[in-house]
Amino acid sequence: MVNFLKYKIIYFLISLTVIGVGLFSTLRWGFRFSIDFVGGTNLEYQPERNVSKQEVKKVLEKEKIDFSYLSIRNKNIFLRTKPLNDKKINDLKKALERQLKTKLITIRSETVGPWVSGDNLKKTVIACFLAVLGILVYMSFAFRGFNYALAAILAMIHDFLVVLGIYSLISYFFGAEVDTLFITAVLTTMSFSVHDTIVIFDKIREYLQNEEEKDIEYFANRALTETMVRSFNNSMTIVFMLLALVLLGGLTIRFFALTLLIGTITGTYSSPFVATPILVWLEKRKK
Amino acid sequence: MRPLKLFFLILISLLIIWINLPENLRINFKILNQKVDFIINPLKIDTEIFGWKIKKEFKTHLGLDLKGGSHLVFEADTSKIKSEDLEDALNSARDIIEKRVNFFGVSEPQIQTLKSSGKYLISVDLAGITDVSSAIKLIGQTAQLSFKEEMPTKDQKEATETPIFLRLNKDTGLTGKHVKKASLTFDPQTGKPQVALSFTEDGGKIFAKITERNVGKPVAIYLDQFLLSAPVVQQKIEEGNAVITGNFTIDEAKKLAIAINSGALPMPMKLIEQKNIGPTLGEEEVRKSVYAGVVGLSLVILFMILYYKKLGAIAALALLIYGALSLAIFRSIPVVLTLPGVAGFILSIGMAVDSNILIFERIKEELREGKSFEVAFNLGFGRAIDAIKDANITTLIVSFILFNPLNWEFLPQFGMVRGFALTLGIGVATSLFTGVIITKRLIKFFYKLK
User: Fold this and answer.
1) Contact A245 B119 (CB under 8 A)
2) How much is the ipTM here?
3) What's the predicted TM-score (pTM) here?
């Protein structure tokens, strides 16, 4: 048996560092929200000739288009503006074609009105709270103890913060946006995190029921020793799937798969090294 | 195994394989000088049993983000609609949009009415449409009621042989503008529902002239491009009233009346959201992701076999059965697969493998204590079940809430999150079955346990 809990201060420091860096990045640079959540129009045009950012900018300023993002990648023009209606989008395209003297092919044209976007975010947050509540209630019953549920949820929040923080870094350095796919990845992480934690807690519960009264810390260490291989193996299978998706999958899901990968790693890490120490601490405090 | 049980097992397996067959795959080869050439397609049911029409095609439905297309959301301006008519009006708007979209030649358009923060929305998903501007125009266009009469023609033969809707193509100048009110009435003779029109003063005069010159001939009534009915005029009608008969249900007649009354959609619509995904982008993305998925799955299977040897091979087999079963369920319901949906499925694969790893680790544990394989197997299964049950039930709770089955307004109603929750939920439920029951059977079979 390995005394995993002896090093809890180290786990705490690791988590603190990762979350700290993430929070710093979140506060310092924030996120780039997709139009799903802040509203706006995304346009991508493929011009026939190479155009420069300056040229496009001049046209936009002349047409009085309020844009928040403009870049040229692989020849294509990427543009983000306040929500535009269909007619304005058409006018803009014509103006660009005329003044840049080139034909444009529309690759992408997306518009989300401002209030739809806020609504989406609000509803997702409500759904998450309900899901957390559901987990709390179910686990409290299944484990006959609120502490188990609380520890699992705290570990889940830990994973949420880790994913959020690291994504803010990715957002800053690689231009990833917070979109519905990101929300899905966060949800996936959260359900995986609880799933993983329950497996360890189940072991502890089994020892408590079947063996004579001993220190919870002893049982926790034993449970960790016995589930460590399983936790690692299980995560490896998911990591294989996701790594393949990150390295070989399509471009639109690359950030998505990457977020899931981070979520899987932190979800696996948090079960033995965050949830279990918290549970032991909570149970000891009770006495 | 008892023969009857075996028979059912084979039957179900064949059915699942049939449902999962690839679409439009051409098989073409030569064997023993016999040419074999046919096209494989998944199961298709189109039959009638005891008057119940059953029609079902088992094929994979891809979401817009995977196959390309447009997603449009309209906000309905309901300020001028009385609250008791609201639902009817929204539904009729939905139906009108559906008719127009069908006219555009879109297969399986997804049209939904939603309520969100007190606003009424209609979302329209058009697969494979890249020319969004014309789609938007078509949807936003006003539904016009029009009356058409026979084109004067000298050639008597041509006049009788062309189908009626081709002959009736001369505009009479009478349109929905001239309709004062349309209402649902019933035919006094047959009791069938019909739509009664009363014209404005101008409209009544035009209508009188039309009926006068067309006595004994049909006059067609169109809504948009759709022929509603083409009654034969019996006599000149001067009261400024007309009736549209047809094989309407009460509901249809009511909706038609609403549509005509507004002259267009029952209410003005404003486009508030639009997204298009190019088909080439979607196709390329799917191809890459499927390839990545296959590579990933192979790695998982390889890992399981290397680490758990024979047990791992059995788990891999159970995993393949799991994949086939899930695909069959996705095709049967049918589930529209989107990118988040695929994520939910990948997560559920992970959880399916997890059930097996949990069981195997338990078996190994018992084996280390020196028990025989059979005892270790039984104990391992019994003890792992608790953890598997609790872990999977929490996931099911989460997916249930995210899927929002009752379509509550305060929970997500948009496709992405729900698509994720649906595949995750189905995947986890299926994995409970294959990861536990099927694996158990397979181990018993391959280890010759009783």
Assistant:
1) no
2) 0.77
3) 0.72
